[in-house]
Structures are given as C-alpha cells and as structure tokens.
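for the writeup, i need someone to sanity check this before i put it in the appendix. the sequnce is what the collaborator sent (i think, or maybe the updated version? ugh). structure was predicted straight from it, no edits. if anything looks off just tell me and ill rerun, i have time this weekend
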Amino acid sequence: MKQGILTLSELTKFIELLKTSYKVFAPVKKEEGVFFEEVNSADDIALGYYNSKLPPKRLFLPQCEVLCTFENGQLVEIPIADEKCAIFGMRPCDALALSRIDMVFDKEDLKDPYYLARRKNTVLLSLVCDKPLDTCFCTSVGGGPSSGDGSDIRMVHLGNRLLLEALTEKGESLISSAKQFLKKPKQSDLEEKEKIVAESEKKVPRIKVDGIKENLEKGFNLPLWSAIAERCLGCGVCTYLCPTCYCFDITDEVKGEKGKRIRTWDSCQYPLFTLHASGHNPRPSKTERMRQRIMHKFFYAVENFGRTFCVGCGRCVRSCPVNLDLRESIELITGNKACVSTRK
C-alpha cells in the first residue's frame, strides 16, 4: 500500500496539481450546510465537517440529466461526459454508497453508460470520519468511519497533516504523481491514525439489525407498517438525501417539432411512482410506500446483491421534517430495544 504524509501547508499545491488533470470537487461550507462543489483552491475546502447536506452521488447520477434531443424525427444523442474529476474529502459512508450503486448500474447484462463513464473518470479521496454524529450508525450496516470500500485513496486528518493511503491502482497512480509533496509517514503517524480510527468507531452509536431480513420476510402484512408510516408526510426527503437511492423517471419534453428526453430523480415515497396506466396503484397509501423503502434497503437488496443498501449515514434521521427515525423503525422490525431516538 502506497502511503504519504501531506502537510496542510502543501495542500494548496496538491489541489493545484489535481486541477491540472481533474475537475476537483470538495466539501464547501455554506450557510445551509456543507455541499460538494467544484473548488479552485484549498482555501475553499472544509476539512473539519461532519457530513455534507447532499450526498456526492449527484456528481455521478445528476438530479436532472438530458439523455438525448430530437427534432423533425431525428434523434441527437448527447455525448457521454468524458471529463476527469477528483472528489476530495468525501466521507467513507458516501464512498461505500457508491460501491452499492455500482452493483445496480454495472450489472453484467445491464450497464448504464452515463453513470459508468463518470465513475471510470473519477478518483475518490475519502476522509476518515473522526467526529461521527449521534445519528450515524455505519458500523451496524457493514461500514465504518474508516471504511475504504469505494475509495481510491483513504485520508486521515492528523492535525496539521493528512495521511494518504492508496487503495486502488488509480490511487497509487495519483500518490506517485504527487510524490514531490508527500513525505514518508513515521511510525508515530501510523500509531496516531490507529488511535483516531479506534476512537471514532467507539463514538458511532450501534443498533441491532440481527434478524431484520428474516423478520421482514415474515412480516410483510404486519400492522407495524401503519405505525411506522403514521407520521410520514410523503415528502421524499429521505430518499433524495439517501446516498444509495437511485430511482429515476424518464420524461419527454416536447415543443413543436423539438424535444428532449430527461432523466430525473424519483422517489418510491410518491403516489405516482407506481401508478399504472390502467389507474391501478399497487402502493396506494403511505403504509405500502414506507414498507417498500425499508424492504428495499434491508431485504430486496440483500436478496439481489448480498448487501444492505443502507450505509448508516443518518441523513434521513437528521432531515425528516416530522422526526421519523429509521433506527426506531428497525427496532420495531427486529424487536430490539437498543436504539433510542436522539431527535428532539
């Protein structure tokens, strides 16, 4: 594993080096929270943040994307983006989420060229989470504050310096190209890293998910779904902020002889999501739609891909306008009482 120490005084030069080959995105602090945006210098980057308001998945699966245009019966395809990007400082849960979405858009018999082109042309530099929030539960769903899944380089913030560790060939290549800015890590650096990782993992609240898949299989028609959905507004914020939700709709906008085909995010929490042309809707109420969301994360995804599609980032817990807590829903399903809501 290639490693290197980057002092924060050299971060500006490192970002400038990245910009010679990549469009660089990093966490930027704004009044509404932290967002991943294109940066021009290291001064724009927020290193000491908790997590971004929106997951970086939008850089690979845009909320709105024109797939093609048409005019007078002629189809014009939109060129697939080939620009190279570097995402600096994303949290491990978001990198792990991308590895989950990969399973959907990079299947052997079904590949999404738009998503895969962006993934291929992007290098991910994740930043170990040293200040997990009380709404996080990544360690309960197969992740962790230092998980390297989905990342090309894992970074650890050691005060006035960053420890960089290459996890893929792309990561090794990037570290090699930046060797003029990197120093060999000392044993004390590696020991400090291990201490930070261990302390971070202790801070992550744990919930019990044992038996959730089996209970979901048995409890499809249980009354608990109505109890879980009772407060839900159906606003869809939980799915839009989720780093592993990938559902979309495709629509045509036509004016005269011109038009365009657009892919936009959609949500299983919306009534129109499963409305048939006949007028029948198999999920007519919030109860069925809430059940679908949880079943997808913890049952269908495990059946199809062998992995839960929740990474425990806690965004849905923090942002729900009526304080619905996914962890409490899991508690109801599993029958465990380990999770108590921290929401006020």
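The CA atoms of residues 66 and 262 lie 4 Å apart. Confidence is low (pLDDT under 50) at residues 336-344.
thx in advance!!
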